[in-house]
Amino acid sequence: YRCDDFVVNDTKLGLVQKVREHLQNLENSAFTSDRHRKRKLLENSSLNSKLLKVNGSTTALCATGLRNLGNTCFMNAILQSLSNIQQFCCYFKELPAVELRNGKTAGRRTYHTRSQGDNNVSLVEEFRKTLCALWQGSQTAFSPESLFYVVWKIMPNFRGYQQQDAHEFMRYLLDHLHLELQGGFNGVSRSVILQENSSLSASNKCCINGASTVVTAIFGGILQNEVNCLICGTESRKFDPFLDLSLDIPSQFRNKRTKNQENGPMCTLRDCLRSFTDLEELDETELYMCHKCKKKQKSTKKFWIQKLPKVLCLHLKRFHWTAYLRNKVDTYVEFPLRGLDMKCYLLEPENSGPESCLYDLAAVVVHHGSGVGSGHYTAYAAHEGRWFHFNDSTVTLTDEETVVKAKAYILFYVERQAKSGSDKL
Question: Using alpha carbons only, how large is the chain's radius of gyration in Å?
Fold first, then answer.
């Protein structure tokens, strides 16, 4: 009971719940005294383990790692990346804490179990608490077990301790945050809070599955999908909202194993974006139902970006099914740290400002290993002008040269402000 693992089938008298409450009281009293002791220690000692030499001067490393709870590096890499997307992270950190407004449970640690019911589980609250624990500099590593229990509860796909796909987790996380924010929280409508936030104006919102939230306001973009019948020429257009773009690594680059290999040109992020947006003839398994011909016909497909998001998330499709195996494409893809220019992929580029389509890199998730069900995830992220490498509990200062050599799996690009320079991809 102390670890509060999932317990079902309580007795009629609720004895399991009574034991849990007793242990919670013991834990809370111990936690309070421990907190006072730690505060004194912090006041009396310098954080020697977190001091780094930067440009000849000693500075405190305020970054906090995330403990691995058993193959949870996929979650840790995504959380660290999102924590370094300032506008997104600040929104959650500024939300009021649930526990402070709940009377009985004020100031107490909340445990989430199956016996408590779905109403007592809040992904937004646990996500908020995790983000608040990062970058405060009071500890070297934070254990996100409360968040992980909520993930288990509302996302059954991620139960257990096997390795999971970081991109799949990110999509589930953003989708569930979006749904919970739409529903309101603690009696306050998230839509109202979003509308009051002047930096997220209505013109920048993208609605996906209902009302806009901070998730869609920051990550939401819109694609235009054009399909043309090759028999009669009928054109079909539809708009699809997106939170990220999944890009194929073009087949001609897939045999390249290292960055320094000289046989042929190097694959770049532009190659992947061009492959995504170029005109494509659909094969026999993807015949288009032409409304004019009244039957399935050969056709072409092309994507245009109708609206760019504030944060452009690009997922490189490194895992592919072949027969009964899921293989990894280990090709190095060159990507820019600054000035990713998305203007040529826009449906109406003439309506965009001179620098409204430029993006700078904020974070990179990297998969190390050969398979999706194995290997290890780490993340690189920029914070206040410095690059850090997040490897579960370990956080180290790194440099741009190391970041650009990484074999990226997920890239997070932040829209550049108008005052920046014109360094382009």
Answer: 24
Res 251: pLDDT: 86
Give the tens place of pLDDT for each residue, 359-383. 999 999 999 987 767 789 999 999 9
Per-residue pLDDT tens for 119-134? 567 899 999 999 999 9
Strand-strand pairing, 221-229 and 386-391:
unpaired
Q: Which residues are catalytic?
A: 73, 376
Higher pLDDT: 185 or 386? It is: 386
